[in-house]
Design brief:
With about 220 residues, this protein is α/β, with parallel strands linked by helices. The protein has a single domain (about 5-220), classed as Alpha-Beta Complex (Spore Coat Polysaccharide Biosynthesis Protein SpsA, Chain A). About 35% of the residues lie in helices and about 25% in strands. The chain has 7 helices and 11 strands. The strands form 3 sheets. The protein has a 7-stranded mixed beta sheet, with helices on both faces. It has a two-stranded antiparallel ribbon with strand order 2-3. Strand 4 (about 50-55), helix 2 (about 60-65) and strand 5 form a beta-alpha-beta unit. It is globular. The mean pLDDT is about 95.
Length: about 220
Amino acid sequence: MKTYAVIPSAGKGIRLGSDIPKQYLQVNGKEIIAYTLEIFQNCDLIDEIIIPASEEYFETLQLLKERYKLTKITSIIKGGETRQHSVYNAIMSKPANGDDIIVVHDAVRPLLTEKILTLAILEARKNKNVIVAEKVKDTLVEIKQNNFNYLDRENIYSIQTPQIFSYKVLKHSLEKAMSENYIGTDESMLVKKAGYEIHIVEGSRTNFKITTQEDIELFEKIKKP
């Protein structure tokens, strides 16, 4: 059984308003994606790293691979029109077996801890399909036309990455979604829609996704030398 990490990196990060995709922005002299890739490079349970990306950034990724000695990167491939197409391209680029493990993680979640990653992979080896999610702590309210509807947060989670599935489950879920012209916001939506059970490993508030300038500033403070 092999464990492949897929780091989708074809996104353009439009919400940040940057001239280049946010994963390639430098924070304290290092690209955000490089911080993320080092997490998987340093995890003993990861065998290979696959990066679906825009072709214009292939050379950049190759340079990062060499600069930071990211030896587990075995494939830099062309990303798809959407995230799920990019993930599908990635898993189809390898001769994986049905029970091999696929770990999908956002390129812009550079504060994932080795502990959470390891726990999630070990859980996936037992239960096949696992997502990292954080139980919501704040009061939640749905507001429509100034009507406040307070939600019961007891059973509400904020879904993060990594999201980990067996190769055969993820492949089937992706193909089913695409055959139905269904586009999900993450892999767990597709796997659940395909009828599979998903298990949860507790995440962390620090495992946030860099989306805004404020997120970059927070990450910069956390990683400040």
